Amino acid sequence: MSRRAIVMMTLLAFCFLSGGGLQAAEKYPVKPIVYIVPVEAGAGGDIIARGLTKKAQALLGQPVVIINKPGGGSSIGYREIYSAKPDGYTIGVGMATIVTNKLQGILPYDYNDFTILGVYANYNPIIVASTKTQRQFKTIEEVFAYAKVHPGELSMATGGIGQASWIATMAFLEGTGLKFNVIPQPGAEAYIMTQVAGGHTDLAMVGGLHAAKPQIEAGNVRFLAYYGAKRPPGYLNVPTLKDVGFDMSWDSAHVALGPPNMPKDIVDKLVKTIEVLANDPEFQTFLAERSGIRLYLSPEQAMPFFDKQRKLLRSIMEKTGILKEK
C-alpha cells in the first residue's frame, strides 16, 4: 500500500471517528440525569417530583435520579443546581422559595437567573388541627372564634420562613386579622406533619393535601380549611377560606429548572420532555389522587406567573420585616 493511500485512509478514519463523536454528543442524554429536590424526602415537592420522573426514562432513554438536598430554606439545593455544569445532567425543581430566597437575602439570584424548563404541577395549602392536643377543633369557625378571644395562644406549625406554607400563613393572618403563635420548622411538610400529628402544635398550615392525607386518614389531624378557589375532590365538606368569609388563595407551583447558559438543543429537549410528562394521563392521575392541580406552563408562560408571585411575596416580606432585597 502506498504512503499516499495510508494517509488517505488515516484521514478518512479520523473523519469517521470525529463524525461519530459529534453524533454521539448530539444524542443527549448519554448518561443518567440528576434531579435535585431542595426539600426532604416525603415533602410535597419530593413526592410530586418522584411522580413526574417515574416515566422520564421512557422519553429520555436514561434514568432521572432524584437527589434530596434540603436545608437553608431550599437554598442548598438551588445553589447546587445553579452552579452545576450546564450540560443538562443536573437539573431540579423550584417552588415558592425560588422566589423568596433572594427576597430574604439568602441567595443573590432567583428564578430569573436559572434556565426555566416548565411548570408541571400546582398545589394549594390546607389548614389542619391536631387531634392530640387539649384543644379540639372540629371546624375552622371554631378556630376563628377561639383565636379572637385568645390572640396569640394557638400554635401553628409551618414550613421554614419563605416556604409556601409559611407564606400562606402570613397572608392568612393578614387577611383574617388573627394572631397565632407561628412556629416555622427547619424543613417542609414532613417536619410540619410531625409536629401537628404528634400534638406538639394545635394547628398547621401544610403546603398541600398530599402531604397531610395519610395523617388525616389515620385520624391524627382534622382537615379544617382549603386555601384554593374550589373545594378539593373527595373533601367537599371542607370549606375554602372564601367559603368562610375570606377571599384569599395561594398557588404553590412546581417548576423544573436548570443552571444558566444551557445549550439550546438540550433545553429544547428537556422543555418538550417536561411538557409531555406534565400532560401525561398517568401523571395527571397521580396528581389527582394527591389533590394536586393540573398546571403546565411553558418557560415563556412561567415567567409572568412568577413575576406576579414575586410582587405579592415582596409585599408580605416587607410587612413582616424580613425583606432584605433593596
Keywords:
44% helix, globular, alpha/beta, D-Maltodextrin-Binding Protein, domain 2, 326 residues, 5-stranded mixed sheet, 2 domains, 10 strands
Explain this structure.
- α5 (97-104) crosses α12.
- It is globular and about 65 Å long.
- The strands form two sheets. The protein has a five-stranded mixed sheet with strand order 2-1-3-10-4, with helices on both faces. The chain has a five-stranded mixed sheet with strand order 7-6-8-5-9.
- The chain has two domains: 28-122 and 252-319, Bordetella uptake gene, domain 1 (D-Maltodextrin-Binding Protein, domain 2); 126-226, Periplasmic binding protein-like II (D-Maltodextrin-Binding Protein, domain 2, 3-Layer(aba) Sandwich), CATH 3.40.190.
- It has 326 residues and is α/β, with parallel strands linked by helices.
- The chain has helices at residues 3-26, 44-53, 56-60, 75-83, 97-104, 140-149, 164-176, 189-197, 209-217, 264-278, 281-289, 299-319, and strands at 33-37, 64-68, 90-94, 115-123, 126-130, 155-158, 181-184, 203-206, 221-226, 252-258.
- It has twelve helices and ten strands.
- The protein is 44% helix and 17% strand.
- The relative contact order is 0.17.
In terms of DSSP E residues, the strand content is 15-25%
Radius of gyration: 23 Å
| Helix fraction bin | 40-55%
Rounded to the nearest angstrom, the distance between the terminal CA atoms is: 75 Å
Put simply, the count of helices is 12
Give the biggest sheet: 5 strands, mixed
Give average pLDDT, whole number: 89
In CATH terms, the superfamily of the largest domain is: Bordetella uptake gene, domain 1
Number of domains: 2
CATH architecture of the largest domain, by name, is 3-Layer(aba) Sandwich
How many β-strands, per DSSP?
10
CATH topology of the largest domain: D-Maltodextrin-Binding Protein, domain 2
Q: What is the overall silhouette? A: globular
Order of helices and strands: HEHHEHEHEEHEHEHEHEEHHH
CATH class of the largest domain: Alpha Beta
Spatial order of strands in the largest sheet:
2-1-3-10-4
Main structural class: alpha/beta
Q: Runs with pLDDT <50, length 5+?
A: 5-25
